[in-house]
Automatic annotation (TrEMBL):
The lineage of its organism: Bacteria, Pseudomonadati, Pseudomonadota, Betaproteobacteria, Burkholderiales. It is an enzyme of class 1 (oxidoreductase). Keywords: Dioxygenase, Oxidoreductase, Plasmid. Residues 8-283 form the Extradiol ring-cleavage dioxygenase class III enzyme subunit B domain. Pfam families: LigB (PF02900). It comes from Sphaerotilus sulfidivorans. One of its GO terms (molecular function) is ferrous iron binding. CDD domains: PCA_45_Dioxygenase_B. The keyword Plastid does not apply. InterPro entries: PCA_45_Dioxygenase_B, Xdiol_dOase_suB. It comes from the Bacteria. This is Protocatechuate 3,4-dioxygenase. Its EC number is 1.13.11.8.
Length: 294
């Protein structure tokens, strides 16, 4: 049986990728940010998974206004880094896991979550920047990665509640896969930021940290956060945070999808690392690592 061992949460910013690729991580502006990910890179070395299920958003790169899937699962054997206007990032190509991805698609679609199946797509900074933050600059990423793209760019976007329940169904899917695999689930994007309009540059440290507390300790309450709260408090792009709830909903202390009312849940996950930093381009960077116990 496959199992989810841990969840990783981190913001993404294209400029973080550029700082890594151009060798600027020790510059005074960037140094505090990358310092916060030093323990995470060590943790990745110590807790190498067999597969990463990576929840992220595409930024009108693979998809455009021509086609807007709410939830899209990458079932391909490999995914190339996208050209977002300055050429593809010089990072390894992403090796997929078509067998597990197809199994998860089958399971969650039968549990009434409609996914778009993607057999070919390039992956943008939403996926490659979290990998770089957690893994550094290796010749190859440490394991296969299943890209899972969520529409948080073009309205209407899915609710936090829907994302949380989808995470529960993904856990059920992983646990019904018949190979012995150690799977990590990553939720990425966020925290507060707004890239356009009168409030461009908005950062809300207090709200971000209160939401992070809730996401870690009371995920049901975090999942109940209304859509308007993200936009009002964390800015238009703060809505990327709903993706973290997919990863959180897949952890062992949340009732498994379809489990009878009152069925026992697993223990609270262990917080292995938590970090928050401003500034990084226009975005507040939040980060946490949760380990399932036992
Ligand atoms: C920035 C943040 C994002 O989430 C993004 O997709 C693009 C840019 C930024 O802060 O610059
Ligand atoms: Fe983004």
């Amino acid at each position: 049986m496959a199992r989810i061992s841990a969840s990783v949460f981190t913001s993404h910013v294209p400029a973080i990728g550029a700082a890594i690729d151009l060798g600027k991580t020790h510059e005074p502006y960037w140094q505090p940010l990358f310092k916060g990910f030093e323990p995470s890179k060590q943790w990745m070395k110590d807790n190498r998974p067999d597969v990463i299920f990576l929840v992220y958003n595409d930024h009108a790169t693979a998809f455009s206004l021509d086609l807007i899937p709410t939830f899209a699962i990458g079932t391909a054997a490999e995914f190339n880094p996208a050209d977002e206007g300055w050429g593809p990032r010089p990072v390894p190509k992403v090796i997929g896991h078509p067998e597990l991805a197809s199994h998860i698609a089958q399971s969650v679609i039968q549990d009434d979550f409609d996914l778009t199946i993607v057999n070919r797509m390039d992956v943008d900074h939403g996926l490659t920047v979290p990998l770089s933050l957690m893994c550094g600059q290796p010749d190859a990423w440490p394991c296969p990665v299943i890209p899972f793209a969520v529409n948080v760019v073009q309205y209407p976007v899915p609710s936090g509640r829907r994302c949380f329940n989808l995470g529960r169904a993904i856990r059920k899917a992983v646990e019904s896969f018949d190979q012995d695999l150690n799977v990590q689930i990553w939720g990425t994007g966020g925290m507060s930021h707004q890239l356009q309009g009168a409030r461009a540059g908005l950062i809300n440290r207090e709200w971000d940290n209160a939401w992070l507390d809730k996401m870690i300790n009371d995920p049901e309450a975090a999942a109940a956060t209304p859509h308007i709260d993200y936009v009002r408090e964390a800015g238009s792009e703060g809505i990327e945070l709903v993706m973290w709830l997919i990863a959180r909903g897949a952890m062992a202390d949340v009732p498994a999808f379809g489990a009878p009312e009152g069925a026992p849940v697993g223990p609270k996950p262990r917080l292995a690392h938590r970090f928050y930093h401003v500034p990084a381009s226009n975005t507040a960077v939040g980060h946490a690592i949760l380990e399932n116990q036992g």
